[in-house]
Amino acid sequence: MGSDVCDQSPVTARVWDCASDIAGFDVRRLCLKGPLPKLDKTQYQQVAVTTVNIACLEALRAKGPVGESCVAGHSVGEFSALYAAGVLSLEDVFRGVAARGRIMQALAEQTEGAMYAIKGIDRDGIAELIALHELADRITVANDNSPRQQVISGCKLALKELLPVLLREGFEQVRLPVNGAWHSSLMRPGAEDFQAVIDSLSFAAPRVPVFGNQAADRLSSIEQLRADLVTNLYSTVRWRETMQNLAASGVRLCLEVGPKKVLSRLLLDFPALQDQLSTRHVAELIVTKPASAVTE
């Protein structure tokens, strides 16, 4: 992962160096050589994905001005978005991401959690089924990704009760390759420690509007930016509404900055936005007009 932007230039090399120095492990080696089971652990994965995100952004900027009009990031991608908007320095991004990964990894090891992507259902539909089976205290809608994709997160035993119901209803389900229940109540015990980390970082006013995961809209103050990051640890990523609000604000081209075309594919689930939003991926390294930078 990230071989195309690893040490491509002194600027991208600095990103990898900074990530390794602050996280305390060799990010280059892990991304390029593995082992894969280690990369699947969130304390390593979050740092690795953020490194590739930002290295891709810097490689793109080396080609010329990106011209982004606003930014948004999915889950830990919020940190990459804040870097793109000039809110956080490179060093503070990796301080925040490394701490987030460590806190979540520790909680994952103390709990029995898992996550599943459920296809063909919207947030109201999945929430209704969770409530109907009295599982709302143990299962959370972790990611409202699109009108046709939800990610649920929570206790394995509770998920074991709900998944057969979803299967009988005809909804496809895919277990995510993660080692914990992200964006669920099982992560809430980490909020206080993560708040202390966020409070220690230096935030600047954003150069362009930042759309947060919790507000699903523009965040107008540094206090809101801080709060969004902390609450995001244990709450639903409101990505569907974020994309709808980006379109409503006038965005017409979204540039996905990250190792894979994940968020771009989600737009296929938005029939109402097909004539409003188009997407490109950073791998093309070409921007022909102002875009919204979206990070995963």
TrEMBL record:
Provide the leader sequence positions.
none
**Keywords (A to Z) from UniProt:** Acyltransferase, Transferase
Pfam families the UniProt entry points to: Acyl_transf_1 (PF00698)
- Coiled coil spans: none
**Molecular function (Gene Ontology), one example:** [acyl-carrier-protein] S-malonyltransferase activity
| Biological process terms in GO annotation | fatty acid biosynthetic process
Cite the Gene3D superfamilies for this sequence: Malonyl-CoA ACP transacylase, ACP-binding (3.30.70.250), Malonyl-Coenzyme A Acyl Carrier Protein, domain 2 (3.40.366.10)
List GO terms (cellular component aspect): cytosol
Which enzyme class?
A: transferase
Asked if the record carries the keyword Transferase, the reply is yes
Which segments constitute the Malonyl-CoA:ACP transacylase (MAT) domain?
Answer: 1-290
Give the E.C. number(s).
Answer: 2.3.1.39
Keyword hit for Acyltransferase? yes
Q: Which reaction does it catalyse?
A: holo-[ACP] + malonyl-CoA = malonyl-[ACP] + CoA
UniProt-annotated catalytic positions? 75, 183
The UniProt similarity line reads: Belongs to the fabD family.
Query: By its UniProt entry, which PANTHER family does this protein fall under?
Result: MALONYL-COA-ACYL CARRIER PROTEIN TRANSACYLASE, MITOCHONDRIAL
Write down what this protein is called.
Malonyl CoA-acyl carrier protein transacylase
**From which organism does this entry originate?**
Aquipseudomonas campi
* Phylogenetic placement of the source organism: Bacteria, Pseudomonadati, Pseudomonadota, Gammaproteobacteria, Pseudomonadales
